[in-house]
């Protein structure tokens, strides 16, 4: 732990020696001695422990990610505990069956689907699953903003035959997480997503990653969601508390099933 605190700049070599002396005198752990001396915080210790056990997360200000990416900054909060519960259910109900891809869909704009998808992708990567988050919202994409991604090419460019898999971007803060941004905003998103090339691309992505999550446009915006869900094979429905109507969720579930996508489950978000 001492070496990691040194490497991260939390301790100077001189302070590390002070900690070692107290550790030896009192027979306590290094982290406890450092805290007693007021050199590090409990948050510093938790972050180092997380790295030791290969459970990466960040302290606020460490990256330019969206502050609402709670799985990155507050992994022990009640919200992220709830995300892990959703992850466990999806592992049992879907991914344990050999499936790799899943579309995440909400009824209307403002349902929080993109942020939910981003947080869900982070917790899957923290499990050690090679995770790819695909921004399939070719109308109003935002994953590039959430993860502060550079570059303009992405999914739309691949479907148009103008880019290859090298447009997928690794997220260095999370070893097992990658993001495929939406790319150039096309004039024909429905037609792009309906192409046979999307089916072939999904098959290719499934062969490379353990989990492929698609952030999909709102169901109310057209057939984009149906096109993506049918390619993925499964869909997770997202409803917003006190905003989404149950009747709309039921209608969406029916149409997803008719399009050949299995409704794996549903979640209610509150923000």
Keywords:
T2SS_E_N_sf, 271 residues, Wzc-like_C, ATP-binding, alpha/beta, Bact_polysacc_biosynth/exp, nucleotide-binding, 7 strands
Helix content: 40-55%
Strand order of the largest sheet: 3-4-2-5-1-6-7
Main beta sheet strand tally, sense and closure: 7 strands, mixed
Assign an overall shape: elongated
Rg to the nearest angstrom? 21 Å
What pattern of helices and strands is seen along the backbone?
HHHHHHEHEHHEEHHEHEHE
Q: Total number of helical segments?
A: 13
Share of residues in strands: 5-15%
SS elements, strand count: 7
Give average pLDDT, whole number.
Answer: 90
Structural class: alpha/beta
**Which runs of at least 5 residues are low in confidence (pLDDT < 50)?**
none
Please give the alpha-carbon distance between the first and last residues. Answer: 37 Å
GO molecular function, one term: kinase activity
Protein name: Chain length determinant protein tyrosine kinase EpsG
Keywords: ATP-binding, Kinase, Nucleotide-binding, Transferase
InterPro entries: Bact_polysacc_biosynth/exp (IPR050445), Cellulose_synthase_operon_BcsQ (IPR017746), P-loop_NTPase (IPR027417), T2SS_E_N_sf (IPR037257), Tyr_kinase_chain_length_EpsG (IPR017479), Wzc-like_C (IPR005702)
Write a concise synopsis of the structure shown:
This protein is an alpha/beta fold and 271 residues long.
């Amino acid at each position: 732990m001492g070496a990691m605190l040194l490497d991260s700049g939390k301790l100077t070599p001189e302070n590390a020696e002070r900690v070692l002396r107290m550790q030896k005198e009192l027979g306590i752990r290094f982290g406890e001695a450092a805290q007693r001396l007021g050199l590090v915080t409990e948050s510093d210790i938790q972050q180092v422990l997380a790295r030791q056990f290969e459970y990466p997360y960040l302290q606020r200000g460490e990256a330019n990610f969206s502050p609402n990416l709670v799985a990155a900054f507050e992994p022990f909060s009640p919200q992220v505990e709830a995300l892990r519960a959703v992850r466990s259910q999806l592992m049992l109900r879907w991914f344990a069956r050999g499936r790799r891809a899943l579309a995440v869909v909400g009824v209307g704009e403002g349902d929080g689907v993109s942020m939910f998808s981003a947080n869900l992708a982070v917790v899957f990567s923290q499990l050690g699953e090679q995770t790819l988050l695909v921004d399939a919202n070719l109308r109003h994409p935002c994953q590039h903003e959430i993860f502060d991604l550079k570059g303009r090419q992405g999914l739309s460019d691949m479907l148009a035959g103008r880019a290859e898999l090298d447009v997928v971007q690794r997220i260095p803060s999370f070893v097992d997480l990658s993001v495929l941004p939406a790319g150039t905003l096309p004039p024909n998103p429905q037609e792009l997503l309906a192409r046979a090339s999307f089916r072939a691309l999904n098959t290719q992505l499934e062969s490379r990653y353990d989990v492929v999550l698609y952030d999909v446009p709102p169901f109310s915006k057209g057939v984009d969601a149906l096109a993506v869900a049918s390619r993925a094979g499964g869909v997770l429905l997202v409803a917003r508390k006190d905003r989404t109507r149950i009747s709309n969720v039921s209608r969406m579930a029916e149409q997803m099933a008719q399009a050949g996508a299995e409704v794996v489950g549903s979640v209610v978000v509150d923000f």
